[in-house]
């Protein structure tokens, strides 16, 4: 099973700052990676698939990059509504999620 | 707009059976994969099972094979997840999802998600 490791566990930033979230795969997943946002009490929402393609309706401040084993989700100019847990998921071999990164807005 | 509307919260005792449902709308039910994802309290999501209602092709995560059964009723655009004997460790929120694949035979992502069904198993 491919293990997905996310870092940091928690990120605390101010509105307007840039957030950089990392996701590492235990073996190469090529570009077969998705990112999700989950706000408290809500279902996860797809943000990115194919490592860098934004899903329908996702604001341009969310961007994904990387391939192989190292991936990054960047949120430019953080807004209060971006406070959430963010998960990565690989779909190269099986379907596995990372443990999540919590983004807190100060 | 695609919508996945799940059945309500359940409280069950260990050993009891359960079947939860997910009614799909806004697309042709037989043309897309639909399935279930588990999220235990404070943990990340885990893929459980998917089904293609067009031909009833089913796939299970090895972690959940034999533990649950996925099914679908094409006549009412509804998918189901059932347990024959619940355990306390089945306590979790279960999400209905559409499974999107970029090409046949490839892996994919989950979009959209239903609102979730909280299942509590306690004696």
Largest interface: A-B, 23 and 20 residues
Radius of gyration of chain A: 13 Å
SSE topology string of chain A:
EEEEEEEEEEE
Amount of helix of chain B: under 10%
Instruction: Tell the overall outline of chain A.
Output: globular
Structural class of chain A: mainly beta
Which percent band covers the strand fraction of chain B? over 45%
Average pLDDT across residues of chain A? 97
The overall pLDDT average of chain B reads 96
The gross shape of chain B turns out to be globular
Beta strand count of chain B: 11
Biggest beta sheet summary of chain B:
7 strands, mixed
Overall strand count of chain A = 11
Q: Helix/strand-derived class of chain B?
A: mainly beta
Alpha carbon gap, first and last residue of chain A: 37 Å
Approximate strand percentage of chain A: over 45%
Structure in words:
The complex is a heterodimer of chains A (106) and B (123). Chain A has no helices and eleven strands. Chain A has strands spanning 4-7, 10-13, 19-25, 33-38, 45-49, 53-54, 62-67, 70-75, 84-90, 96-97, 101-105. Chain A is globular and about 35 Å long. The mean pLDDT of chain B is 96. Chain B has 123 residues and is mainly beta. Chain B has strands spanning 3-6, 10-12, 18-25, 33-39, 45-52, 57-60, 69-73, 78-83, 92-100, 109-113, 117-121. The A-B interface holds A 32, 34, 36, 43-46, 49-50, 55, 87, 89-100 and B 43-47, 61, 95, 100, 102, 106-116.
Supply the key terms.
heterodimer, A: 106 residues, mainly beta, seven-stranded mixed beta sheet, four-stranded antiparallel beta sheet, B: 123 residues, 11 strands
What is the secondary structure topology, with strand pairs?
The complex is a heterodimer of chains A (106) and B (123).
Chain A: E1 4-7, E2 10-13, E3 19-25, E4 33-38, E5 45-49, E6 53-54, E7 62-67, E8 70-75, E9 84-90, E10 96-97, E11 101-105
Parallel strand pairs in A: 2-11
Antiparallel strand pairs in A: 1-3, 3-8, 4-5, 4-9, 5-6, 7-8, 9-10, 9-11
Chain B: E1 3-6, E2 10-12, E3 18-25, E4 33-39, E5 45-52, E6 57-60, E7 69-73, E8 78-83, E9 92-100, E10 109-113, E11 117-121
């Amino acid at each position: 099973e491919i293990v997905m490791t996310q870092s940091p566990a928690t990120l605390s930033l101010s509105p307007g700052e840039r957030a950089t979230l990392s996701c590492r795969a235990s073996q190469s997943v090529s570009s077969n990676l998705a990112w999700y946002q989950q706000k408290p009490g809500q279902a996860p929402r797809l943000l990115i698939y194919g490592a860098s393609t934004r899903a329908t309706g996702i604001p341009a401040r969310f961007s994904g990059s990387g391939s192989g084993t190292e991936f990054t989700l960047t949120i430019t100019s953080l807004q209060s509504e971006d406070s959430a847990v963010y998960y990565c998921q690989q779909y190269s071999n099986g379907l596995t999620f990372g443990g999540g990164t919590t983004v807190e807005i100060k | 707009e695609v919508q996945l509307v799940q059945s309500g919260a359940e409280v069950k005792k260990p050993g009891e059976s359960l079947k939860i449902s997910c009614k799909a709308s806004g697309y042709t039910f037989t043309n897309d994969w639909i399935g279930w994802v588990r999220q235990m309290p404070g943990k990340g999501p885990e893929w459980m099972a998917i089904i293609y209602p067009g031909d009833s092709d089913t796939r299970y995560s090895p972690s959940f094979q034999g533990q649950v059964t996925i099914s679908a009723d094409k006549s009412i655009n509804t998918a189901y997840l059932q347990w024959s004997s619940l355990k306390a460790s089945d306590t979790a929120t279960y999400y209905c999802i559409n499974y999107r694949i970029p090409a046949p035979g490839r892996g994919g992502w989950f979009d959209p998600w239903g609102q979730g069904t909280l299942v509590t198993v306690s004696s």
